[in-house]
Specification:
There is one protein chain. The chain has two domains: 171 residues, Rossmann fold; 157 residues, N-(1-d-carboxylethyl)-l-norvaline Dehydrogenase, domain 2. Helices cover 47% and strands 16% of the residues. Strand 6, helix 3 and strand 7 form a beta-alpha-beta unit. Helix 9 crosses helix 10 and helix 9 packs across helix 11. GO terms for molecular function: 2-dehydropantoate 2-reductase activity; NADP binding. Belongs to the ketopantoate reductase family.
Length: 335
């Protein structure tokens, strides 16, 4: 199977590199700087599986028709990636990997729904520099069909290929899982606002209180909107309901303990990684999804709305908030 991965960032580079190491026919599409370095020096992966230098071809745009296209750009970059390569991917199976719940809808404006496999990555990776990524922690790769248009045999075929790099799971209700993944990612806004690693940010229980507030507000919104969360591998829905049902101070201490032990290497989260690279982040598709959901159902999401605006302020000014500044900005919005 000829495979292409569009997006040479933390997730895309990791996926392409591991598939290549397993002998798959795969190439990588990325930005000019990354393409130049990868073609000259190879793709360098370090982390939980060891250190690897992967010889892989990289291109700025596709040069062939892939049977399988793994779309690993940020959500806000999907349209430009599709437009740049559209003539070569009309018959490809497309696997989306983005956070949030909008990626598949965007892809379906350009390509048949029956060619789209939605996915959720539960493994973690950090973009270090062009052509260099760190694999922070292991996790499965969940596949599913939001539109109920793609055949089971096609999903199974893709699953067997991707399983060479990561353990794959096929879900019958991936949309409910994707909404739960928003909760997992929603805390990424806090390190982005502070300019700190996740371990540094959440070592402070006061900062962790903000995360509990995000979850409480999000869970209330989804309940009122009638959206059912579905447990993820390694992250059951009870992880949310248990913490939001106990006093905030206790929940914050428990959350702090979990987050500071996620990885021995610093974790920055996707939002801060984008900001550090001078790019727009996916905040509008994570915490912003709570805000949009509230608007669609004539509800409110004041905490998430405030945090979205703070991330955009950091993007525009390149100035991070102090922990005190963060807490003072949101303390009246915490339950």
């Amino acid at each position: 199977m000829k495979i292409a991965v569009i997006g040479a960032g933390a997730i895309g580079a990791l996926i392409a590199g591991y598939l290549k190491l397993k002998g798959e026919d795969v190439s990588l599409v990325g930005r000019p700087e990354a393409v130049c370095i990868i073609n000259k020096e190879g793709l360098k992966i370090s982390g939980v599986r060891g250190n690897f230098k992967v010889d892989i071809f990289a291109h700025e745009v596709l040069t062939y028709k892939p049977e399988l296209l793994i779309l690993a750009t940020k959500t806000q970059d999907i349209e430009s990636a599709l437009k740049d390569n559209l003539s070569l991917i009309k018959d490809s199976i497309i696997v989306t990997t983005q956070n949030g719940v909008q990626a598949d809808n965007i892809v379906s404006r350009y390509l048949p729904q029956g060619n789209i496999i939605s996915s959720i990555v539960m493994f973690g990776s950090t973009y270090f520099s062009p052509g260099k990524v760190v694999h922070n922690f292991e996790g499965s790769w969940v596949l599913g069909d939001i539109f109920k248009k793609i055949s089971d045999s096609r999903i199974l075929s893709v699953s067997l290929t991707l399983d060479k790099a990561f353990t794959t799971i096929i879900s019958e209700d991936i949309l409910g899982m994707k909404y739960l993944k928003i909760f997992v990612n929603a805390n990424n806004c806090i390190p982005a606002i502070l300019g700190l690693s996740m371990q540094e940010a959440f070592s402070d229980p006061e900062v962790s209180r903000v995360s509990i507030g995000i979850w409480k507000e999000g869970f209330d919104l989804l309940s009122q909107a009638g959206i059912k969360l579905v447990s993820l591998p390694g992250f059951p829905v009870e992880n949310i309901t248990r913490l939001i049902s106990i006093p905030s101070n206790e929940a914050a201490k428990a959350f702090s303990g979990i987050m500071t032990k996620l990885s021995k290497d610093p974790l920055y989260g996707s939002i801060l990684q984008s900001i550090k690279r001078g790019r727009s982040s996916e905040i509008d598709y994570i915490n912003g999804e709570f805000v949009s959901l509230a608007e669609r159902h004539r509800l409110t999401a004041p905490l998430n709305n405030k945090l979205v605006s703070m991330v955009h302020e950091v993007e525009e000014t390149k100035k991070f908030f102090s922990k005190e500044g963060l807490f003072n900005s949101v303390k009246l919005l915490l339950n």
